[in-house]
Design a protein that fits this description.
- The protein contains 14 helices and nine strands.
- The protein is α/β, with parallel strands linked by helices and 424 residues long.
- The chain folds into three domains: 155 residues, Periplasmic binding protein-like II (D-Maltodextrin-Binding Protein, domain 2, 3-Layer(aba) Sandwich), CATH 3.40.190.10; 141 residues, D-Maltodextrin-Binding Protein, domain 2 (3-Layer(aba) Sandwich); 85 residues, no CATH class.
- Strands 1, 2, 3, 4, 5, 6, 7, 8 and 9 form a nine-stranded mixed β-sheet that branches.
Length: 424
C-alpha cells in the first residue's frame, strides 16, 4: 500500500477515535449519575432538615447528574472526617472546624447561635454557676462540643468542660424533660425547634454576658477565636422568652464538598442552590440567610473551583486576553467589596444594637409601672411614643426591617395588652 494511503487511513482512524470518545464523554460520562452523600447532623438539629432540602433541590434540578441522599452524623467534626475519608461528598460544618486540604467550600449558609438552655429551678444564673450541674453539649467531638469547650475555657471552666454530657440534640431534649440533666448547649439558627421545646417547659436561656456592654467577655471570646462573632438573641424570640436580650456568640454554618469533586458538577450544584433558594427556605428558614455576597477569605476552607466559576459567571469574555490588567482590577474590586461588606455589617450591627435599646426601654418602662412610679395610662402613652419613634427610625433606615423589628412590634403589643387588662 502506498505511503500516502497508509497515512490517510491513520488520520481517519484517529479522527474516528476522537469522535467516538467525544460522543461517549458527552452522552455517557457526562450524563452518568453521581452519588452525592450529604453529611448533616442529628435529626433534632438544623443541619439535617436543611440537608434534606438540599438533597431535594439537587435531585429535582439535576436528576440525570446526581442522586443525593442525607446522612445523619455527629455534626461538624464528624463531617470533616467523613469528607477526608471519602465517606461523603458534601457536608455542612461550622466555620471554626479545622479541615484538611481535601475540603473545599461552596458557600456560607447561615449564622449558628450558641443557645444555652438551663433549668429555671437549677439555680444557674451565670455560666460560672454551671459547676456541678449535668449539662449536655452534643455528641463527643462535635462542633457543639468543641464550641462549648472553648466558651467554658474562656470563662476559666476548662475542668468543667470535661464533665459535659455528650448526646444528640433530640436525646438531650428528652433527658432534660425527664430531669436527668439541668441544661443543654445547642448550636443552631434562631427559632430552633429543640430550643423552643425546652423553653416551653422548665427551661430558660442563659446569657453569656451583657450584649450592650462594650469590651465585654463576649468580645474577648471573639478575639481569642476570630471565626466567632458576638450575637444577641432578641427578647421574645421564642414567644414569651427570653424576657430580655441574651448575649451569646455565633459561627457561620458552611456548605463544603470534597476537593476532588468534578468542577462542572460543583458549578451546577452551586447554581441549583441559588436558583432554588425559596425551596430551601421551605425546608428550613435558616436558608433565608443564603447570599452570593460574602467574603471568601473569611471561610476556613478555600472555595471549590466549580463554585468560583459560578460566582464569576458574569466575568467579561476578554478576561483571559487581559489577565494581568483584570487581575489588578479584580484585586482592587475585592478590596473595595470587602470594605463595603465590612461597612454594611457595621451598619447592620448598629441597627441591631439600636433595636436592642428599644427592648431595654420597654423593660424599664414596664418596671416603673409595676413599681407604681407611673400609671397604666402613662405607660401606654410612653409605649405608643416608643413605637412611633421606632417606625420613624425604620423609615429613615436607622433600624433594619428584619425579624428583630417584628419581635419588637409583638413585644409592644403584648405589653399594651397587659396594661389594658390592668386598667380594666
Amino acid at each position: 500500500m502506498p505511503t500516502g494511503s497508509r497515512w490517510m487511513i491513520a488520520v481517519l482512524v484517529a479522527a474516528a477515535v476522537v469522535v467516538v470518545g467525544g460522543v461517549w464523554y458527552w452522552f455517557g460520562a457526562a450524563t452518568s449519575v453521581q452519588p452525592l452523600r450529604i453529611g448533616t447532623g442529628g435529626i433534632g438539629g438544623t443541619y439535617y432538615p436543611l440537608g434534606q432540602g438540599l438533597a431535594e433541590v439537587f435531585n429535582s434540578a439535576l436528576p440525570d447528574r446526581v442522586h443525593a441522599e442525607v446522612l445523619e452524623t455527629s455534626g461538624s467534626n464528624d463531617n470533616a472526617r467523613r469528607l477526608e475519608a471519602g465517606e461523603v461528598e458534601m457536608a455542612i460544618i461550622q466555620n471554626d472546624t479545622e479541615v484538611s486540604a481535601a475540603v473545599r467550600a461552596i458557600a456560607p449558609l447561615y449564622p449558628e447561635v450558641l443557645q444555652v438552655v438551663v433549668r429555671a429551678d437549677a439555680g444557674i444564673g451565670t455560666i460560672e454557676d454551671a459547676w456541678g450541674h449535668p449539662i449536655s453539649a452534643g455528641p463527643a467531638g462535635s462542633g457543639t462540643d468543641v464550641l462549648a469547650s472553648r466558651v467554658l475555657d474562656h470563662f476559666g471552666m476548662a475542668a468543667y468542660a470535661d464533665t459535659l454530657v455528650h448526646c444528640s440534640t433530640s436525646e438531650a431534649v428528652e433527658r432534660f424533660e425527664r430531669g436527668e440533666i439541668d441544661g443543654a448547649f445547642i448550636v443552631s439558627g434562631l427559632k430552633s425547634s429543640a430550643v423552643a421545646r425546652l423553653l416551653s417547659g422548665q427551661g430558660r436561656l442563659l446569657s453569656l454576658g451583657d450584649p450592650a456592654q462594650v469590651g465585654s467577655a463576649l468580645e474577648g471570646l471573639r478575639v481569642s477565636h476570630p471565626f466567632l462573632s458576638r450575637s444577641v438573641i432578641p427578647a421574645r424570640t421564642y414567644g414569651e422568652q427570653p424576657v430580655e436580650p441574651v448575649g451569646s456568640v455565633a459561627v457561620q454554618a458552611v456548605l463544603v464538598v470534597r476537593a476532588d469533586l468534578e468542577a462542572r458538577l460543583v458549578h451546577d450544584l452551586t447554581a441549583a442552590i441559588f436558583e432554588n433558594r425559596v425551596g430551601l427556605m421551605k425546608a428550613h428558614r435558616a436558608a433565608a440567610h443564603l447570599s452570593e455576597q460574602f467574603d471568601p477569605s473569611a471561610l476556613q476552607a478555600p472555595l471549590h473551583e466549580g463554585a468560583e466559576q459560578y460566582y464569576r459567571r458574569d466575568a467579561p469574555p476578554f478576561y483571559v486576553a487581559y489577565a494581568e490588567f483584570m487581575s489588578l482590577l479584580l484585586t482592587l474590586g475585592l478590596a473595595g467589596a470587602s470594605g463595603f461588606l465590612a461597612v454594611r455589617r457595621w451598619v447592620r450591627r448598629t441597627k441591631k444594637d439600636r433595636i436592642d435599646v428599644y427592648y431595654l426601654d420597654i423593660q424599664t418602662l414596664m418596671q416603673r409601672w409595676e413599681d407604681g412610679e407611673i400609671t397604666a395610662r402613662e405607660a401606654t402613652d410612653a409605649l405608643l411614643e416608643l413605637r412611633s419613634r421606632a417606625f420613624e427610625e425604620l423609615v429613615e433606615e436607622r433600624l433594619a426591617a428584619d425579624q428583630s423589628f417584628t419581635i419588637f412590634q409583638d413585644y409592644v403589643t403584648s405589653e399594651m395588652t397587659k396594661l389594658e387588662r390592668a386598667s380594666a
